[in-house]
Amino acid sequence: MKAPRNQAGTFPQPVARPTPDSPDPVELYAALDLGTNSCRMLIAQPKGAQFHVIDSFSRSVGLGQGLEASGRLSDAAMRRAIAALRVCRRKLGYHRVRRMRLVTTEACRRASNGTAFLNQVRRQTGLRLEVIRAEEEARLAVISCGPLVSIRTEQLLVVDIGGGSTELVWIDLSAVPPTDRPRALMRLHSGFDGAPGPFPAARVVDWISVPLGVATLREQFADVEDDRARFALMSCHFEEALADFAPYHHEPQDQPAHFQMISTSGTVTTVAASHLGLTRYDRSKVDGLRMTNAQIDAVIGRYLRLGPGGRRRDPHIGRDRQTLIMSGAAILKALLRVWPTDRVSVGDRGLREGLLYAQMSADGVLETGPV
To answer: pTM of the full predicted structure?
Structure first.
């Protein structure tokens, strides 16, 4: 039986069952991300230079549905989110987790009733969610991608395509010894300015949070009936929004051996799954996969040829994702027009992983060996 995909664009991962020998709750950390589309949580314990997932949760809630038009979170969306958060609360209680960060992002940043919603969450679930700033959202996405950085990379662009916003961070790693480059990203948990220390630091050249994600971009062009025209308009609109992001005047392809783009999102994992022909999602095949510009173009071209009806029936996309995949593909296409590269690394990771790495790094519980 084929697994259905969720609205965030990936197949939902099976919820990890508690291990037979339950871990000491003192060692456990939790990270919850209530985004514009989905509510996701990981519970994990440190293991070497990384972490081991003990339990997980993911559910499509559509918190930002209708936000673009009304400026408010709808009652139905808030009810869906609170129902998901109640499940998270039970899991946190079951595992007796004490160290945790529970965050929400663009939908609550923008909604006029965002604060009222968080108060309602606290009353009805006991969970205290914090709205994180766009800079921290971008930083956490970067941290989560540390293990995907090539030791040959000197210039790195990390892109996190979310439901309500897209974060881009350009990082200069040329001053960092090659074998230390993956870990240098994880040291950014203290801020983009870096923390003083004995190690050469990754330098954040520029970053931007564009208030356009797969849900918000789609809503802005929902009145355009022609599928190809809507895709072209969305892609051009997103490219225009990048005007203020200019980390370097020269093009990355001037030094192709040293530039790497890492993209994290349901969009890029769906594109990767389509490229591989997966009808059942396999994270081990997708996370860390490298795709060329031509391969991504081929997948997006196929999506356009299928049209809305064909995409709804495509087993590589899934019923939920088909409504959002073209706005995400429009963003990805715009990025590759501006920074063409044959090295796009696919990351099936994001805010939750970044939150866990940041907490564990701050507590000094991760080993300092290779990532």
So the answer is: 0.84
